Amino acid sequence: MTSKPTARVIAELKANHDVANATELESQSLDTGYETAVDVVSDSPDPTATIGAITQFISREHGKQLACQHYRDCTEIGPHFDHSRHNLKVAGSDEYPLLEAGMVALSGADMQPVIYISNEEFVDAVSVRAKTAELRKLLDQVDEMAGRVFADYEGRL
Questions:
Q1: What is the pLDDT of residue 143?
Q2: What b/e readout covers 37-50, taking b as 16+ CB neighbours within 10 angstroms?
Q3: Which residues of the chain register pLDDT less than 70?
């Protein structure tokens, strides 16, 4: 005899399966998946936890399929042709970033990726490293200047 929680979970599975079939998603693999889920839930001592575990597994696997298969740093999800990441920023005092970096690789025959830092684009790692070294040197100079300027200011007080 099927317990009430098991019957409820199986009824929900059947309703979802029927909806999927009604929206023309029907397929042999969908039917097989439904039958397997019903068998597993029927045999489970905790059908709600079992269906939860199945759902988490499907979500995890689906997330892997949505992730970009070409660039690890691409933040686009799902099927896409253009690749990008635009979220590397140092905030400024207003709404605009003080410094912004990211990557873009547009679709086409030559999918040459580009790394950008603010308004400058780089097409190879060597030129990116040269520019970031220059930025580090500049930031060190800004730190040194700040130390001198504020020491001079405090000395005048």
A1: 94
A2: bbeebeebeebeeb
A3: 1-2, 5, 24-26, 29-30, 59-66, 109
Spatial separation of the C-alpha atoms in residues 13 and 15, rounded to whole Å: 6
User: What is the rounded distance in angstroms from the CA atom of residue 27 to the CA atom of residue 78?
Assistant: 22
Residue 21 makes CB contacts below 8 A (sequence gap 6+) with 30
Closest CA to 99 of 91, 107, 87: 91
CA 93 to chain centre: 27
Residues 6+ apart with CB under 8 A from 113: 71, 83, 103, 104, 105, 123
CA-CA distance, 79 to 101, in Å (whole number)? 24
The Cβ of residue 17 has, within 10 Å, a number of other Cβ atoms equal to 19
CA distance 117 to 98: 11
Question: Which regions of 26-127 does DSSP assign to beta strands (E)?
Answer: 83-91, 97-105, 114-117, 120-122
